[in-house]
Amino acid sequence: MAAGDLVGAVLRSVLAAVLSTPWLIGVLLLAIAKVVGLGRAVVHGGHGRDPRRTFSRAEKVALLERAGHRCEHHSWLLGRCRETEALQADHVHPHSRGGATDVANGQALCRRHNRGKAARVPWGWELAGMQRRRRAYFPPGSVTAVVRHGPRVRSTGVRQIGAVSGARALRNVPVDAD
Ligand SMILES: [Zn+2]
């Protein structure tokens, strides 16, 4: 039997097994999703963590202000969350995955939606949707795009000299130096 025939036979038997047990398809899809998620976490984690994890007071004020002091969580079924109390400053692209602690990577979330958010790397189309929705509620002239990563950092946590951050270039509000 030629190698090509053997591969074909193996693929056919795998396909037959999957089709005869439908739950295997679900397991297979979950496994693929998990592998893709881990791969993206590794790729984005390569940017290194921002040495600063928490947003400054001024950054939080700016995030809440441009969001109209309302949670920015959006669900396809219910639309935008209506919560306006006890809002928190959150990283759109998670800090643990190399997300910058910067207004350009920030969003206002209510406690419930901040708690329920896993350290998942958002897809580009999710950010595009967010940017589109933000045009409707951000003050005119504000930058609505999300910039995931700041400048690459050395292992010492010191920002590289001469590195210009897209996030910082896009920053539209003055921020404390702390
Ligand atoms: Zn909410």
TrEMBL record:
Q: Where are the transmembrane segments?
A: none
Q: At the top level of its lineage, which domain of life is listed?
A: Bacteria
Species source reads: Geodermatophilus obscurus (strain ATCC 25078 / DSM 43160 / JCM 3152 / CCUG 61914 / KCC A-0152 / KCTC 9177 / NBRC 13315 / NRRL B-3577 / G-20)
* UniProt name for this protein: HNH endonuclease
Ranges for domain HNH nuclease = 58-115
Q: What molecular functions are annotated in GO for this chain? A: endonuclease activity; nucleic acid binding; zinc ion binding
Keywords, A to Z? Answer: Endonuclease, Hydrolase, Nuclease
